[in-house]
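Re: the multi-chain job from yesterday

Posting the exact lines I submitted so nobody has to dig through the queue logs.
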Amino acid sequence: MIVPVLVGVTFIVFSLTYISPGDPARMILPQDATDADISHMRHLMGLDEPFLLQYVHFLFGFKSPSEDASFSYKGLLALDLGRSYVSNRPVFKTILERFPNTALLAILALILSVILSIPAGIISATHQYSVSDMVVSILSLLGLSMPAFWLGMILIWIFSVKLRIFPSLANPSNLKSLVLPVITLATMNTAVQARMTRSSMLEVIRQDYIRTARAKGLDEKKVIRKHALNNALIPVVTVIGLQVGQLLVGAVLTETVFSYPGIGTIMVDAIQRKDTPQILASVVFVAIVFALVNLLVDIVYAFIDPRIKAQYESMSKSRANGALAKGK
Amino acid sequence: MEKKSQALRARRPGARTSKKQKTAFQEFWRRFKKNKLAVAGLIIVVIYILMAIFADLFFSYDFITENQISNAFAPPLTTAEIDLNNGNTAPHLYILGADNFGRDILGRIIHGARVSMVIGFTTIAFAGIVGSALGAIAGYYGGKIESIIMRGTDILLAIPNILFALAIVAALGPSFQNLLLAIGITSIPAFVRLMRASVLTIKNQEFIEAARALGARDFRIIVRHIMPNCMAPIIVQATLGIAQSILSATSLSFLGLGIQPPSPEWGNMLSDARSYISYAPHTLLFPGLAIMTVILAYNLIGDGLRDALDPKLKR
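And the result, structure tokens for all chains:
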């Protein structure tokens, strides 16, 4: 199931790059290049081929007629999309070097946000209208409303410029410098997840089976932990899954604010310089990571909601039965 | 209103729905009004909308895009001479100060409201309608239709918003409409997934079976019986969605990839301010506060809507 998703993603991204104005051949040639030079260069780069053939090249590789090996590439399946027009380095080399930095930032932020948000949401729901509910609600509303890049700059102003506690530039080798970017990146997620946990928990708590559990004299803690939480977490997991995407988008901004050497800064640079191979490679790479995460979310989803698992089982069973009936 | 609904009833003998809808709306409004924070949010949004509509009455567009370099970084509440381009100067009170080109920050925030309000409304209206419909269809029918819709959603989800938005803007040309389209499309998947997840948990309940046993068609079951019971998470999502789409637009502009200066937009104001954090923090503070208040207001309204619309909370 993941394969068609990846084909779709690569096709969309490739098509968008294909129809975008701006000729890569013109980009890498000097200003005074003649039209003949440009069309020759287009031929060497494989840009004069039909659209679908170019897409096939993109997936499976391209052998340039030129002696210069840097125009040839082995294709996406071999993780080789050629070299950057700007730096002339293999694009995936840059990405694979920088991606761990982004992953580090995103994972730290995800952990921080889950640790903070789920307990906060539960407390807020189980003590509805209490002071702690008010505090959680107000903080999560503020966190939700703050643009991450603005929060980052405000944190820099307070903690780097005024108090001089944390550096304003972040670097993966310096853990202290990661504090501000991780807080910046985690804030929005924490707020979204806390709100989702709260509203979902409130809905579950009103269900009949919770009343039943309470009626049979079960300890309130057990009711919440065993009966309410599992059901309340279903939409939360969906949201966390969707949030992973937001984390990467947030990482682009957070990295820009803190000048952090991650994949976000690669993308922004590449887009501003119209460095097509680098744009393509970054987007596709992130898309692959996304697709894998989405797959993981779906699995977790079925795992925590036995009803959905049961439905899939009965669906495949009835499909098998239908096939049998047709065979007869 | 009363006359209109009577007229409607007179025209269509069997149409008791118009009366029912009206009382439902009154009931909803009665409950919404009780939530003071939501009403506050509504007031803030109305103020921003009025600001956006009447921006030219406060500050002319030419004035807020024109450099007054001698007044650069004027702190809030200072009065400075501005050049009127005819050899004369006039005193001007910078209520929220001036930016790095001496432009009035308040004026730029007011004009920036225009961009943000339009983006927030249109993208989420589009994404909410399309996404919920697709999600309901996927969840209700299952099978092949579901696979197609959900794979399409996965494909959309698998491309990071900002980059997808940017790829669209780059491919179709950098226009405001393309920015709307890009942010609108990237907002769809969340609605599809949430709606489908809710429908999956609801569609096998007894009242749906009862409706089917009574001979209701699929369309009626989805629209009248399933969707109303799935609205709470969708409304929460729409709330977050408006916030998200305004954020996306400001984020793109912040990266220098959205609305370009000197056009006033909150994100590109912050982008300029970034270089002067230690020197002129007021250029950083106010555009951010503008974004925050408008998003906060949308969120408060969303919460109020959720509480007022949730059928389970009705007493």
